[in-house]
Amino acid sequence: MSDTGTLDALVQALRRLPGVGVKSASRMAFHLLQNDREGAELLSRALHEASSRVQHCERCHTFTENRICDTCLDEGRDAARLCVVETPADQAALERTGAYKGYYYVLMGRLSPLDGIGPRDIGVQQLLQRATDGVVQEVILATNFTAEGEATAHVIGEALQRKGIGFTRLARGVPIGSELEYVDLGTIAHALADRR
Amino acid sequence: MSDTGTLDALVQALRRLPGVGVKSASRMAFHLLQNDREGAELLSRALHEASSRVQHCERCHTFTENRICDTCLDEGRDAARLCVVETPADQAALERTGAYKGYYYVLMGRLSPLDGIGPRDIGVQQLLQRATDGVVQEVILATNFTAEGEATAHVIGEALQRKGIGFTRLARGVPIGSELEYVDLGTIAHALADRR
């Protein structure tokens, strides 16, 4: 039996964090135990609290401590618009723009057949139910413009079309402040095709 | 009061980890809560266990759950040699070579005046006491070959010299498997000066 069993267990547990390998995990464990035991206890409590309290909003599927999240409870929003995003971070980015006042549906992921993540895992069925409540008139697909995000938007778009629900996709184009010379060709081609 | 208070607290707590900014912390929190609640609970317990059980070895200052660590209790080692390293990870690297059979003193840090870390913080006084026990004949300075590690070795070397204790430094030279063309000039100059 090693005399550093709990330390080894901590390094192993830190490796469960995304993007953390054995070297980073050792460095984190060393830092917390040598310089920041208070931080270690704080993080321990925060993990337990969040893990036991945070659940999914019944309407939009995002993280919340209640049955329905604050955004879905906000009656001042435009109920005819429903914006589909991949994660709460994407939702937060849209909120920060101040340009959208409708409701959200958070997939909490994206389609990724290689990782075994199919339509059921991102709750496409619940999204369709939500979108066919008779109030929603437009679903705005705001998944990321990555291969997986595009595929997710495509699959959801087809399902919405079969149900006869109108949907739009965020515009593809040249980002604000960029010089054409440095923008990738696919983006410029899209911006040309979608010119207005 | 936000309905995601515990989630925000978790993101803040994760930022106490070295090298983790707000984006990484959000990604980690999202991953744990969405895909790995078991990992979150595991990490929570591991942090608490390690933080409450791990202490410093009274002889070599490394992390241990006991009063004296296993390495210091190992009577098969050469008590005449004492190797000074910065961290337990450095000690582990030396152990893996299988080329050293003496004891260690782990500074648990390095001199870094800019961060307010002086000789007292890395236990130079305890090291001198340990090295003047009458048994130790050679102190091997194996701090890192960075600016701070070199400064640490220099300060400890001077203190040992005043006490009349013999010390050596790990050899500087060309790493195994490297081509001279790609080795930095300072290293080649050292390898030339120390040729044998």
From TrEMBL, chains A, B:
GO biological process: DNA recombination; DNA repair
InterPro entries in the record: DNA_Rcmb_RecR, Rcmb_RecR, Rcmb_RecR_Znf, TOPRIM_dom, TOPRIM_RecR
Zinc finger (C4-type): 57-72
Pfam family, one: Toprim_4
Ranges in a coiled coil: none
Domain Toprim: 80-175
GO molecular function, one term: DNA binding
UniProt keywords, alphabetically: DNA damage, DNA recombination, DNA repair, Metal-binding, Zinc, Zinc-finger
Annotated family: Belongs to the RecR family.
Function (record text): May play a role in DNA repair. It seems to be involved in an RecBC-independent recombinational process of DNA repair. It may act with RecF and RecO.
PANTHER family per the UniProt record, alphabetical: RECOMBINATION PROTEIN RECR
NCBIfam families: recR (TIGR00615)
Name this polypeptide is given: Recombination protein RecR
Organism in which the protein naturally occurs: Comamonas koreensis
Name of the gene this protein is made from: recR
